């Protein structure tokens, strides 16, 4: 069954990539920009380049597997929902890279830096066009649902899910920035950031959309769906934060220590600060927020974390949250189809074991 699930996941990804490219090739004609505009096609091209450049499409997979909880038959509306999910993700990437001043994304230039290269003498133009590119992706993510050939009630319910997910994500971004100004922020703050910023739009919303399309009435099960999404989101964020210090840079294709240099009080940084004192704490604090922090300094912090058991404790915490999420999914067997339940049961474990 596991191999069947993996084959199905790969199929979802391949099929969606074709669908997404076809949509992005034709969206310019649908929005009807004035014929004289050169900036609009350029904006759409940048959104296309970013959208098609990598990504595991896990949200699309979650959408399809949520529909399979109800039925194995083809379900109308999944293509529109998948496009909406990934357009919302594109919006998030554009704005994240602007907020973080990131020059690259998925092996290419971020939208913000692409615009900076196009308008080197006009920084406000580059900034404004980046914001508008992200806004356009958000608007398209809702429009694609409203234009879907589905019953009005289903379209409205789907649009409500995506609107709520977008608003939750914006709140997540706000409290994520706020967190780094709060030296007393504890584990519950970190959990809330992971929930609002990631879990609600990356896990909960795709599951709700898939169930809506398949007639599964997600409002009847909202509490347990939220619990599952929150737990998966937390262990996924823990894993990302863990890899930022304890991961292998060559395997990941990017340097470690980004959270340290940016002064971000991630799960890993918070765990480090709670575990050290004296000279070791001074080493961690010297690296925290220092953009010129060297790889050697990051390695020293990493060694402190290993010696103080931070690495082992984070692995245990990730696995604990993954097991709790799996247990929530296991409870769905009396209600939904076995093969799809198995996917949701295995997903949390996969999410923490990759490259750990």
Automatic annotation (TrEMBL):
PROSITE patterns: POLYPRENYL_SYNTHASE_1. InterPro entries: Isoprenoid_synthase_dom_sf, Polyprenyl_synt, Polyprenyl_synt_CS. Keywords: Isoprene biosynthesis, Magnesium, Metal-binding, Transferase. The keyword Magnesium applies. Coiled coil: none annotated. It is an enzyme of class 2 (transferase). Its cofactor is Mg(2+). Pfam families: polyprenyl_synt (PF00348). Its EC number is 2.5.1.-. One of its GO terms (molecular function) is transferase activity. Belongs to the FPP/GGPP synthase family. This is Polyprenyl synthetase family protein. It comes from Kitasatospora aburaviensis.
């Amino acid at each position: 069954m596991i191999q069947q699930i993996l084959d199905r996941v790969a199929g979802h990804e391949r099929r969606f990539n074709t669908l997404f490219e076809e949509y992005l090739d034709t969206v310019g004609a649908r929005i009807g920009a004035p014929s004289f505009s050169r900036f609009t096609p350029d904006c759409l091209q940048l959104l296309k380049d970013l959208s098609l450049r990598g990504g595991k499409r896990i949200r699309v997979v979650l959408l399809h597997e949520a529909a399979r909880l109800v039925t194995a038959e083809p379900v109308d509306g999944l293509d529109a929902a998948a496009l909406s999910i990934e357009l919302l993700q594109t919006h998030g990437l554009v704005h994240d890279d602007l907020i973080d001043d990131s020059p690259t994304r998925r092996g290419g230039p971020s939208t913000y830096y692409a615009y900076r290269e196009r308008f080197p003498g006009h920084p406000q133009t580059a900034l404004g066009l980046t914001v508008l590119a992200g806004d356009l992706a958000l608007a398209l993510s809702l429009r694609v649902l409203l234009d879907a050939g589905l019953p009005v009630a289903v379209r409205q319910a789907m649009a409500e899910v995506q609107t709520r997910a977008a608003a939750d994500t914006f709140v997540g971004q706000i409290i994520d920035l706020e967190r780094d100004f709060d030296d007393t922020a504890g584990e519950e703050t970190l959990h809330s950031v992971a929930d609002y910023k990631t879990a609600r739009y990356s896990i909960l919303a795709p599951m709700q959309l898939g169930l809506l399309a398949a007639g599964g009435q997600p409002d009847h099960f909202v509490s347990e769906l939220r619990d599952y999404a929150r737990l998966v989101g937390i262990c996924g964020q823990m894993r990302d934060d863990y890899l930022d210090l304890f991961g292998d840079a060559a395997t990941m294709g990017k340097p470690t220590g980004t959270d340290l240099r940016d002064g971000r009080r991630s799960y890993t940084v918070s765990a480090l600060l709670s575990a050290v004192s004296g000279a070791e704490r001074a080493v961690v604090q010297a690296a925290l927020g220092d953009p010129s922090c060297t790889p050697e300094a990051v390695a020293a912090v990493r060694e402190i974390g290993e010696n103080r058991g931070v690495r082992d404790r984070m692995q245990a915490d990730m696995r604990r949250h993954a097991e709790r999420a799996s247990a929530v999914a296991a409870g769905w067997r009396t209600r939904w189809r076995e093969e799809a339940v198995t996917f949701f049961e295995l997903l949390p474990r996969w999410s923490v074991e990759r490259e750990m």
